Amino acid sequence: MPQFTAAEIAERLDGQVLGDPHVVLTGFAPADTAQPGDLTFAENAEFLARATAGAASAILTSLEIESSKTRIFVRNARLACARVLPLFFPEPTFAPGLHPTAVVDSAARIAPTAHVGPHCVIGPDVQIGAGTVIEAGTVLGAGCRIGEDSRLFPNVTLYPRTQVGNRVRIHAGAVIGADGYAYVFEGGAHQKIPQVGHVILHDDVEVGANVTIDRGALGATVVGRGSKLDNLVHLGHNVVVGEHCLLVAQVGIAGSTRVGNYVTLAGQVGIADHLRIGDRVVVGAQSGVMHSIPDGEKWLGAPARSAAQMKRQFVALAQLPGLLRRLAELERRVAAGAPSPSVTDH
Q1: Calpha distance 156→137 (Å, rounded)
Q2: 3-class SS at 253?
Q3: Which one of 24, 244, 245, 342 is most buried, by most CB atoms within 10 A?
């Protein structure tokens, strides 16, 4: 069991202990379920009150508020939480080498420190870098390239020639490099347009469970460095996602759209094909984007418009029932021959 003193935790986080620096911490838990020996965190006054009333032995916080418990004071409690969690919940380690049930082509090149798990299939000319983990049931098609210290969780499928950078995480069930959705109508039927491109995932990308990323029709579908794709995201062929973007669950981007850097697409956003989404754009949940968006704007709604415009429409929509009642009253008075009400008559 991991064990640290409050002082040791503070040193790792560049924080300051307020209280007993020698208190021993053996776990990390939410305030409501924490037990003696646990560290918890509080990023607002309500959380701090609950943490103080709970059984946790110490509190990780950025609030300058008094508490009867030992506190580890840091500049950003959420960031500190992300840094301290691996101390108490380290990721599993995987022994280097190939599992006996793995099927590995003789032309594959796998670093000695990489791990290939049970029932994996590694195709010809695949390259796997040092420290990378390929978990059970994963299939890597011919010519795939995977960098160093990446991790592919169980049952991931990479179609041929997929390129994966360093420190990339691809969660279970993801399919990278399947055919793009492209057909031409001729002779009363939809004729398939062959998809001969590939997919590139740059360094530090994370791909959620059951994500699907189609390969390019001719060139590449690309996800830029540091971008994070939540579960059930879909990228169409030749989509380019920039660096450090956040694509939340069930986002769908149609083919050949280009997304800039530091873009946030909230849950269930849909984006039409061949659009340009600028840098640092934010699109609200369940929005349907049918037009390109300039840099730095916030859009929402279906069809999506600028947030300021859509908020005015939402306010107007909320007033609509009252306006309809007033209109019905006016129509009733006109039909009855009554004088119209004054502008102040309600």
Answers
A1: 7
A2: strand
A3: 245
**DSSP assignment string, 27-86:** EE--TTT--TTEEEEESSHHHHHHHHHSS-SEEEE------SSEEEE-S-HHHHHHHHHH
Q: What is the pLDDT of residue 339?
A: 66
* Range 159-186 average pLDDT: 97
CATH architecture of 4-88: 3-Layer(aba) Sandwich (3.40)
Read off the tokens for 236: 């169409």
185: its two tokens: 């109508």
pLDDT value, residue 341: 61
Parallel, antiparallel or unpaired: strands 139-140 and 305-306: unpaired
Confidence bin at 2 (pLDDT 50/70/90):
confident
Which amino acid is residue 263, in one-letter code? V
At the fourth CATH level, which superfamily is domain 98-306? Answer: Hexapeptide repeat proteins (2.160.10.10)
AA identity, residue 98: L
Asked if 52 contacts 27 with a C-beta cutoff of 8 angstroms, the reply is no
Strand ranges, E, within 91-210: 97-98, 103-104, 109-110, 115-116, 121-122, 127-128, 133-134, 139-140, 145-146, 151-152, 157-158, 163-164, 169-170, 175-178, 183-186, 189-192, 198-201, 206-207
Q: Is the peptide bond before 160 cis (omega within 30 degrees of 0)?
A: no
Q: Tokens standing for 7?
A: 């002082």
φ, ψ (nearest 5 deg) of residue 117: -85, -175
Task: List every span in the chain annotated with CATH 2.160.10.10.
Answer: 98-306
Nearest CA to 198 out of 174, 180, 225 is that of 180
CA distance 248 to 281: 14
Alpha-carbon span 48 to 35, nearest angstrom: 16
Catalytic residues: 237
User: Are 134 and 171 a contacting pair, CB within 8 Å?
Assistant: no
Mean pLDDT taken over the chain: 94
How much is the pLDDT for 338?
67
Helices (H), 68-151: 77-88
